[in-house]
Amino acid sequence: MFEKVLVANRGEIAIRVMRACRELDVKSVAVYSDADKNSLFAKYADESYHIGGPSPADSYLNIPRILEAAEKAGADALHPGYGFLAENPTLGDECAKNGLKLIGPSGSVIESMGSKIESRKLMEKAGVPVIPGNSKGVTNPDEALKIAGEIGYPVIVKASAGGGGIGMRTVYEEDELLRALESTQSVAESAFGDSTVFIEKYVEEPRHIEFQILADEHGNTIHVADRECSIQRRHQKLIEEAPSPIMTEELRDEMGSAAVKAASSIGYTNAGTVEFLYSHGEFYFLEMNTRIQVEHPITEAVTGVDLVKEQLKIASGRELCCTQEDIQVRGHAIECRINAEDPLADFAPNPGKITGYRSPGGPGVRVDSGVYMNYTIPPFYDSMISKLIVWGSTRNEAITRMRRALSEYIILGVKTTLPFHKSMMLSPNFWEAKLHTHFVDEYKQEITDNMMKIIQKDKEMEARLKSTFLPSKRVAAISAAVNSHLASTISDNSKK
């Protein structure tokens, strides 16, 4: 096992990786920007190094500075978490040059899966079902019209190098296609430096179902069951659950086998996720995420497999912890992404200072977070505050438990997505698992009406609670004292 791992990330995922390191008796190293100098993850690590200004380009995307910190710390491995550098194909090569082991797949695999066109070709070759469409870039308008005509409308125009829903346009009629092609190419060039786009058949009311993959360096590959991630806004996930409510053992075997085939065919190693669209009894390869996923805790909750510890073990050369037959799904888990966003203003980011904070607890409740009372959420990064995860013996119990946990969660000072999640847990259509990726848009009025009522109740509760929170100056003093104590305790433990 490694002796020291540098975590090239921030927030809750940095703490999650550091917790796994601590349980494996591995020292952790944090890197932080100007904006994160008072962050919890920087205090939690055994060692911390400042790497630059608040912008990602000056810090968490700056490979030379991160590698310089790794050298100073004497780290022997690097965990990229998710986002930032996690899907940068050059990171592995740069790590190797500096004597570091990258905890993740090879750069060539990351590069091939990062291109939607290349990954589509590879999946076709491997015999994995893909959505009807073309497998090469489109730049010529006449060619685009011909392809769309052959596939049949509606179609979707995608940026080949895209991700997170960026560079995607749905087209319902021929008259819209050329405008969509031009718009998507422009967005793709601006966001990814690559204007290549391609066209696929638009799948109506699809469910987004993904399979967790683990693969070691000895040729063993398994799936660690499924997750449903259909509750999204602008193609970005808001609520995930495991297993998918529609999953049967037969369907899990079929989709899981396709996911394993996809990973094995490209020589994949470490943790990854194969994502599918499912509609009317058919499933199609969507993409592969070559990293740990935000929603990995729900898989851990229903299978008992610590995915991050497995990442570390695999990268250190060990074989997988278990076989495919060992993976059993028990109960049901749901994750709500709690973001500093205003759900009534189209989920606009709302960074700022947290003036009151109390996380939920009790049976079957887990909170992965990187914030604390009086912490200021910076405007430079993703707006996620935390992930609230619950487990229940059944889906209905999990929803009921999530409702209870959400009612206990108090975050004052910034607008959050808590009202949205509370509204979702009241939705009859969510309870009945009538899920698809356009759910939030289809039931927008119902969700909004419920949120308005919830927000009014929350305001009344906040007014009662404000007196229970300490004045901000006193909180700042207490936070500083706690952080100082934590840092000194960690330092003492490191010496021991």
TrEMBL record:
Keyword S-adenosyl-L-methionine set for record: no
Keyword Transit peptide: no
Cofactor: Co(2+); Mn(2+)
InterPro entries membership: ACC_Biotin_Carboxylase, Acetyl_CoA_COase_biotin_COase, ATP-grasp, BC-like_N, Biotin_carboxylation_dom, Biotin_COase_C, CPAse_ATP-bd, PreATP-grasp_dom_sf
E.C. number: 6.4.1.1
Gene3D superfamilies given in the database record: ATP-grasp fold, B domain
Source organism superkingdom: Archaea
Entry keyword set: ATP-binding, Ligase, Magnesium, Metal-binding, Nucleotide-binding, Pyruvate
Principal EC category: ligase
Domain called Biotin carboxylation: residue spans: 1-445
Domain ATP-grasp: 120-316
Protein name in the entry: Pyruvate carboxylase subunit A
Lineage of source species: Archaea, Methanobacteriati, Methanobacteriota, Methanomada group, Methanobacteria
Gene name in the database record: pycA
